[in-house]
């Protein structure tokens, strides 16, 4: 194992899609092929058999995540055609030992997955002593969503063992390059290859980074910058999907059509078109924030118009959301600025000064607190609790990746029902 291997993890549910996606990944430079845990749970050992038949000369990995009955599960995978079988690193030693004996009997290797292991360095040393062949520094997807990194696990174990070390968990070209530079012998990539609309191109990009880590420069970005960047890549539907179909505002529409916004909320409570607090909030808002206004259900008088919009643009506000109507829409549409409202009226109220800036409000049936992230496009507006913004952004990106891949397969002639095996997964 003198050069790093690129292992593509087929973490999908549909066995019929596995081989074509794997073929595209191999064309881009992947050399190890993994039947991921979701695929094995969905299709069983048939998925491993299909991969072995299609790729007789490649390493086929069965990500069984064995936690018990080591012999039975290793035997199943080996007889189906796997050459490497995955066990959970924190399985009991008796399970590990039995799995090792079975692996020696059936001529396969064992990879131990460190997911959720309390002390990775100590356990890695123990696993090498027990006979494990490869250690996988893996951070699971739910942990990735809250910011945990497999590269941290890799750095904790790389000098603790003499057997090859793999790394997995949300890797892209940049983090794959970092992993190889840190000593990883196997780089495992799932979503950033499998969910790509150009699987071959994505695999080739990561292969190039593995071959020469210097081709990918390090990325310096704050967490808020990363959140904003992701939210501007994905759609409002992606975001609400990531939150299990919650967070969407009701009745609100984009006044300027196809615009996109994302930023933390500056909240405004006003009454009956009183535009004092909405206008004053422009001077309170920071660059990149979204002003969110509750007009207290009054649909006959607008608290916002063209002059306020121009002022907000000068302050580099990211967008406006109004539970109420807006006016001067012809001018606002010329600006192409993200303004979302529940209607349009020409009437304006008086600047009486009623209301408040910076308090929790209800806007379009959603609770909004100062600092909650607001994401909007032509499909609508979604409120993301500030404490979950990073996690939800990362999950929305995974939703977006999945959709991009399915879209590509539909473009090639499939249908949505066929790609997703809809009949198979209908609730019984």
TrEMBL record:
<dbReference type="InterPro" id="IPR001754">
    <property type="entry name" value="OMPdeCOase_dom"/>
</dbReference>
<dbReference type="GO" id="GO:0006207">
    <property type="term" value="P:'de novo' pyrimidine nucleobase biosynthetic process"/>
</dbReference>
<dbReference type="GO" id="GO:0004590">
    <property type="term" value="F:orotidine-5'-phosphate decarboxylase activity"/>
</dbReference>
<feature type="domain" description="Orotidine 5'-phosphate decarboxylase">
    <location>
        <begin position="5"/>
        <end position="206"/>
    </location>
</feature>
<protein>
    <submittedName>
        <fullName>Orotidine 5'-phosphate decarboxylase</fullName>
        <ecNumber>4.1.1.23</ecNumber>
    </submittedName>
</protein>
<keyword id="KW-0456">Lyase</keyword>
<dbReference type="InterPro" id="IPR017120">
    <property type="entry name" value="Bifunct_HPS/DMK_prd"/>
</dbReference>
<dbReference type="Pfam" id="PF03737">
    <property type="entry name" value="RraA-like"/>
</dbReference>
<dbReference type="Pfam" id="PF00215">
    <property type="entry name" value="OMPdecase"/>
</dbReference>
<dbReference type="InterPro" id="IPR011060">
    <property type="entry name" value="RibuloseP-bd_barrel"/>
</dbReference>
<dbReference type="GO" id="GO:0033982">
    <property type="term" value="F:3-dehydro-L-gulonate-6-phosphate decarboxylase activity"/>
</dbReference>
<dbReference type="InterPro" id="IPR036704">
    <property type="entry name" value="RraA/RraA-like_sf"/>
</dbReference>
<dbReference type="InterPro" id="IPR005493">
    <property type="entry name" value="RraA/RraA-like"/>
</dbReference>
<dbReference type="GO" id="GO:0019854">
    <property type="term" value="P:L-ascorbic acid catabolic process"/>
</dbReference>
<dbReference type="InterPro" id="IPR013785">
    <property type="entry name" value="Aldolase_TIM"/>
</dbReference>
């Amino acid at each position: 194992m003198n050069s790093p291997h690129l292992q593509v993890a087929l973490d999908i549910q549909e066995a019929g899609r596995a081989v074509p996606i794997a073929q595209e990944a191999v064309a881009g430079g992947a050399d190890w092929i993994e039947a991921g845990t979701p695929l094995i749970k969905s299709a069983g050992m048939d998925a491993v058999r299909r991969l072995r038949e299609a790729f007789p000369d490649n390493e086929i990995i069965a990500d069984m995540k064995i936690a018990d009955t080591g012999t039975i599960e290793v035997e199943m995978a080996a007889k189906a055609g796997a050459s490497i079988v995955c066990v959970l690193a924190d399985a009991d030693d008796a399970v590990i030992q039995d799995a090792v004996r079975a692996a020696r009997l059936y001529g396969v290797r064992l990879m131990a997955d460190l997911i959720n292991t309390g002390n990775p360095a100590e356990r890695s040393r123990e696993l090498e002593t027990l006979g494990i062949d490869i250690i996988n520094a893996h951070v699971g997807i739910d942990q990735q969503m809250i910011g945990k990194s497999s590269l941290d696990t890799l750095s904790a174990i790389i000098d603790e063992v003499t057997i090859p070390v793999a790394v997995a968990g949300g890797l892209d070209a940049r983090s794959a390059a970092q992993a190889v530079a840190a000593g990883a012998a196997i780089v495992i990539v799932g979503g950033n290859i499998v969910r790509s609309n150009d699987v071959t191109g994505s695999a080739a990009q990561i292969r190039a980074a593995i071959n020469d880590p210097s081709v990918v420069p390090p990325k310096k970005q704050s967490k808020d910058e990363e959140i904003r960047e992701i939210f501007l890549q994905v759609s409002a539907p992606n975001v609400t999907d990531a939150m299990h179909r919650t967070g969407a505002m009701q009745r609100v529409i984009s006044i300027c059509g196809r615009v996109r916004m994302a930023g933390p909320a500056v909240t405004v409570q006003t009454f009956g078109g009183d535009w004092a607090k909405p206008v004053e909030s422009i001077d309170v808002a920071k660059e990149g924030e979204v002003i969110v206004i509750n007009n207290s259900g009054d649909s006959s008088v607008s608290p916002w118009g063209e002059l306020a919009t121009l002022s907000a643009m000068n302050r580099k506000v990211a967008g406006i959301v109004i539970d109420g109507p807006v006016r001067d829409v012809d001018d606002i549409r010329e600006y192409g600025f993200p303004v979302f409202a529940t209607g349009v009226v020409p009437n304006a109220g008086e600047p009486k000064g009623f209301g408040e800036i910076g308090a929790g409000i209800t806007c379009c049936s959603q609770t909004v607190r100062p600092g909650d992230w607001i994401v909007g496009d032509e499909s609508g507006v979604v409120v993301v609790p500030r404490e979950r913004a990073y996690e939800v952004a990362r999950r929305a990106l995974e939703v977006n990746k999945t959709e991009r891949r399915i879209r590509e397969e539909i473009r090639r002639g499939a249908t949505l029902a066929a790609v997703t095996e809809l009949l198979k997964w209908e609730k019984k």
